[in-house]
Amino acid sequence: KKWKQLSRLQRSVILFLFAFLAVCGVISYTSMGEPWKSLTNKSLDDQRTEPEIPGLKLANPAVLPAPQKAGTNLGDYPELSPQKLPRAPHVRRGPSNLQIKPPWRDVRLKTRHDTSRVVEEPIQADREEKTEKSIISWRGAVIEPDQSTEPPSSKIKEPEKPSSVEAEDQKEPVPINDRQLAVIEAFRHAWKGYKDFAWGHDELKPLSKSYSEWFGLGLTLIDALDTMWILGLKEEFEEARKWVANDLVFDKNVDVNLFESTIRILGGLLSTYHLSGDSLFLEKAKDIGNRLMPAFKTPSKIPYSDVNIGRGTAHPPRWTSDSTVAEVTSIQLEFRELSRLTGDEKFQKAVDEVMKHVHTISGKNDGLVPMFINTNSGQFTHLGVYTLGARADSYYEYLLKQWIQGGKKENELLEDYMRAIEGVKKHLLQRSQPKRLTFVGELAHGHFSAKMDHLVCFLPGTLALGAHNGLTADHMKLAEALIETCYQMYAQVETGLSPEIVHFNLHAQKGHKDVEIKPADRHNLLRPETVESLFYMYRFTGDKKYQDWGWEILQNFNKYTRVPTGGYTSINNVQNPSNPEPRDKMESFFLGETLKYMFLLFSDDIDLINLDKYVFNTEAHPLPIWVPA
Ligand code: DMJ
């Protein structure tokens, strides 16, 4: 009534005053730092992460800041824990990112005292601009406010260029040291055997001077491409490239294992494309990627283990409709990268769906997963058995690595990883006697077994990588303890080489070491996991003992597995130095992984595959991190 009695002028003045006060209020609220943003993210995170995940607490904020412009620091988060290696004095610092130029242009392998490498760095500016918009969630993961709830695949638009194409600034050569030269010599010896007796075939049989076929796709050659690039082996690389260009044909009526061909062939081609910038490798990667896609046509979308890449049909193994959990959850880095490079989201969609599904299903034990999953029902099978070894190993590795690859935005991956590591601590960690080595055993229907596969030795490296990326410091402590154990799996054995599986003594017995070996487990397949972890540990701590341990291992490979006419061989008996019983097979991962990690371990150049720019797939093929730190 009173309002109506007021004149028009009086009403306008009152309305103006109200409007003025409202604007002042908004301004002062905004200047408090846009609190609604963090509130929104926090509540979203809260909803998704109940109950609280141990180890992911505000008390342990990330030490790695979100990707950001140089000189800015977001909130109270400390600066990135750097890779610890001393930089070679003559390496110029520039805008950070790694690229290795083609070895024949820049990497000069000369005499023992005159070896050099040039590393260059690409333009960073537009990436920085993109990442500037990111904010950090309360748990330290990077969230882009407008993107955090969308699947990454929806963001795919334009095909990406190889990371090498962005390379620009050149740095001074970093000398190659004697240990790296020894790795190059070992590689050349292995390659000689492959070239002389197995060229274009899957694996060398160095004793019978012949070869074995698995998929008939030149597996060793493809697995070794990026190793040759990194080692600077120009001639060998060129020759292998020619074979890829002229002889690598995927239109073949052959069954391949989805996981093995993804990590070795697709991963190898993608990584070589990134390092070399040569589109031949991307074309081949697209071809094999497309041919593997029928594997995902299953009732549950959990892929079959095998695909006929010529016929376009897929199937599980003859005796079961199960797939292996590690296999279906360790193809993601490669297919996601293929989507990013091609602009075709179908690859990423297929593999992301698998991860999302595995995230939701029951049958886990504090984040630990069973070893099998059914392709019809999409449920875990053979419940109750938990291991970090064969059939489960790289599930854990890829949780962390996908999170890193995608710029640390996909919180479900991080949550599953953190929960799983807590599960490891709760159910699988024990200490041996007499040395009290920390080891990862297995759990079968509530019974603990002190058995540890050599495969588990990927774990210290993965834990260290997580800690470097901001996860809790106790992961690094555990990594340090476990790498010591993995080293002891070599050092306590007669040949100084680890067997495939060890059993740890839980009780001290006179005359017994920590490590016991059963006759069926005493073979060595030239596997990489311990050397891989040594590489991460050296990069992040700078502690030379890790290099020394790796050097011992290389010498023992040379002593017991080197075949004089060319190549290295798996052996049947690591306990018998006078007759280690050669098995007559050189696995492709010896060149793809073991020697590559050795070379990187002995390097003091942190930009030789910079771990803030690249993430290694489980076959040691480096793929770019989408939003580098
Ligand atoms: C490789 O093919 C990969 O590292 C895989 O993750 C495990 N097995 C071998 C090496 O041991």
Please describe what this structure looks like:
Disulfide bonds join 457-486. The active site is at 260 (proton donor), 393, 500 (proton donor), 529. Mean pLDDT is 82; it is low at 23-82 and 86-155. Helix content is 43%, strand content 10%. It is mainly alpha-helical. The strands form 9 sheets. Strands 1-2-5 form a 3-stranded antiparallel β-sheet, with no helix packed on it. The chain has a domain at 178-216 and 319-622: Glycosyltransferase, CATH 1.50.10. It binds 1-deoxymannojirimycin. 1-deoxymannojirimycin binds next to helix 20.
- The coarse overall form would be globular
Proportion in helices: 40-55%
Which oligomeric state applies? single chain
| Count of DSSP strands | 23
C-alpha termini separation: 64 Å
Individual helix count: 20
CATH topology of the domain at 178-216 and 319-622: Glycosyltransferase
Give the overall average pLDDT: 82
The percentage of residues in β strands lies in: 5-15%
**CATH architecture tag of the domain at 178-216 and 319-622:** Alpha/alpha barrel
Biggest β-sheet, characterized?
3 strands, antiparallel
The CATH class of the domain at 178-216 and 319-622 is identified as Mainly Alpha
Region (Disordered): 65-101, 115-174
GO biological process, one term: ERAD pathway
Disulfide bonds: 457-486
Subcellular location: Endoplasmic reticulum membrane
